[in-house]
TrEMBL record:
InterPro entries: CheY-like_superfamily, OmpR/PhoB-type_DNA-bd, Sig_transdc_resp-reg_C-effctor, Sig_transdc_resp-reg_receiver, WalR-like, WH-like_DNA-bd_sf. Residues 124-219 form the OmpR/PhoB-type domain. Keywords: DNA-binding, Phosphoprotein. It comes from Micromonospora palomenae. This is DNA-binding response OmpR family regulator.
């Protein structure tokens, strides 16, 4: 899941980002409205965690512009106010959810995960290809009933490939969906991650390389 945190309180923004990354999400951070507005329209995020009172472009404007664009990106609006009127106003601008500060981090994570599930076309709660079973909610992978221990990035790549249902997914698409903006676009990290993922999944090979195009799940595994 790709998440953008737009929050001008740097300590809070960084804490949110660290926590979400520990849950396996790819997270970018913007500390003002101008940067956040630009980032939200340059990259397709699953969820934007958006502070309402931002310097530069106001959070209300970012939210309204995202809603007007028709994007599938979901918005979780943060605010220091807990009044019913503010919540109603925020939701009226197009926010998908609303969380007053201070908040429990576990609640924020649960809300982000719930919004993330609504940001992409509906997928079954458990993904299967061949004898590989993936439970995204519990972040568990098994092959032939045996557990497969994957890193967060390996898990993310596997989910993206399986959800594509045999269609080719390019390295660029995997880089955008699984890693964050700090990753060098010319890195070999996607190739290396796919290589280690293949090794952990074992035989018969589940992932095929389509030369010059990207990767897909093997036809015989479907």
């Amino acid at each position: 899941m790709r998440v953008l945190v737009v929050e001008d309180e740097r300590n809070l923004a960084d804490a949110i980002a660290r926590g979400l990354r520990k849950r396996g999400m790819a997270v970018d951070v913007a500390y003002d409205g101008d940067t956040g507005h630009e980032a939200a329209f340059v990259t397709r995020y699953d969820v934007v965690v958006l502070d309402r009172d931002l310097p530069g472009v106001h959070g209300d404007q970012i939210c309204a512009d995202l809603a007007a664009s028709g994007t599938l990106t979901r918005v979780l609006m943060l605010t220091a106010s807990d009044s019913v009127a503010d919540r109603v106003e925020g939701l009226g601008l197009g926010a998908d959810d609303y969380l007053p500060k201070p908040f429990a981090f576990d609640e924020l994570v649960a809300r982000v995960q719930a919004l993330g599930r609504r940001a992409t076309p509906a997928a079954p709660p458990v993904l299967e290809v061949g004898d590989v079973v993936i439970d995204p909610a519990r972040r568990v992978v098994t092959r032939g009933g045996a557990p497969v221990d994957l890193t967060n990035k390996e898990f993310g790549v596997l989910c993206e490939l399986v959800k594509a249902r045999g269609a080719v997914v390019s390295s660029e698409e995997l880089l955008e969906r699984v890693w964050d903006a700090n990753t060098d676009p010319f890195t070999t990290i996607v190739r290396v991650t796919v290589m280690t993922l293949r090794k952990k999944l074992g035989d018969p090979p589940l992932i095929e390389t389509v030369v010059g195009a990207g990767y897909r799940t093997a036809e015989g595994a479907a």
